[in-house]
Design a protein that fits this description.
2 domains, GMP Synthetase, Chain A, domain 3, alpha/beta, globular, 17% strand, 6 helices, 194 residues, 6 strands
């Protein structure tokens, strides 16, 4: 096996693990999530196949989650110097709505569990210079465990787009895991201004 083939295999494995972790944190059935990384003309394609009930969570309202994933994939492609594409594979017809999973606050889903996810996204995209500050929202009662975060250190409009995409996915993760994350900063100011 050549060095290039080993590097390609290592990158495919890294991408599969990364997207399993990231997407798996904002869907209800992470054990049934399939992530495959295959060849694409001149690069790689990340194929995401969730259980049919999770298809809407991966896509997000109006496609906002898959658009955020696409933005993160673009940053990873630049950092890894390989063309990448993300593809959501799912049913050809709208799936039946799955069983409702009740919203339960998970008191263990704190910044200590959120931070490694954010740090891994920043590492994969080569954006470790960005600062992500997690804060407990003191304007709401403790039982809501509401956190918000601020991303600082943007050097370009592309990095601002990346930060917005990361914020979108962290909000999706927060909703699934039982912690409300507030973003963007304008929403936070509007909601909690005197």
């Amino acid at each position: 096996m050549t060095a290039a083939a080993k590097a390609d295999g290592a990158l495919r494995h890294e991408l599969k693990q990364f997207f399993s972790m990231l997407v798996g944190n904002y869907i209800h059935y992470p054990d049934e999530l399939k992530i495959e990384v295959g060849a694409m003309a001149g690069g790689l394609a990340v194929h995401i196949t969730p259980k049919e009930f999770d298809y809407g969570k991966v896509s997000g309202r109006g496609g906002e989650n898959i658009q955020a994933l696409t933005c993160i994939v673009e940053a990873i492609a630049i950092h890894k110097k390989v063309p990448l594409r993300v593809m959501l594979l799912g049913p050809s017809i709208k799936p039946a709505k799955g069983p409702e999973i009740p919203y339960v606050v998970d008191r263990h889903w704190t910044k200590d569990r959120i931070k490694p996810i954010v740090m891994e996204v920043l590492r994969m995209a080569g954006k470790e210079h960005l600062q992500v500050l997690m804060r407990k929202n003191t304007a709401v009662p403790d039982e809501y465990l509401e956190y918000f975060y601020i991303i600082e250190g943007f050097g370009s409009e592309e990095e601002r787009d990346f930060g917005a995409a990361l914020g979108r996915l962290m909000t999706a993760i927060g909703r699934t895991q039982g912690v409300q994350l507030i973003t963007p900063a304008e929403d936070r100011r509007a909601k909690f201004s005197p």
